[in-house]
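fyi for ur records
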Amino acid sequence: SATFQGQFVSFKDIEVFPKPIQKPRPTVMIGGRSDHALRRAARYADGWNPSQVSATQLATSLPTLHTYFKEAGRGEPTEVGINIHSVIADTDDAAHAIADPSAAKMFPNLDEYKERTILGNPDAFTQRVQEYVDAGANYIELKPLYPDVDHLINQMHLIHDEVMPAFV
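which gave:
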């Protein structure tokens, strides 16, 4: 149970159900791309989950993360993942037609957009996922961009049918 007395919230002997199935507890991840985020992950989390990083940024940050984990007396991180915007379509042009309008709002620099997004036809998409695996990610959270639910469902099918078999 948990008890907390704060300025705005207080509770006493609260229990949470259902209990987590992970033992001894769920994995705790901390995101962020700054040096402070890496230090927080090493002190308080089981791993690191930055958002919208390039594969190069991930790979070059991992030695620092490992150093901070060791300095904190914690060994190695158990998880390193990313969460990243993605679009998969039958062709690269179709993927860009979906992604480009949103990306123009999120990324002022076109090169950053290309480096920090996974998009393209199934082969290109799979290759980009592999770049992150090679950089040290052991899981990837995709944040699909889509104009409507039908496009989202189609992307889910393409990922399931065309991308996931390469990583099983």
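The chain has a mean pLDDT of 95. thats all i got for now
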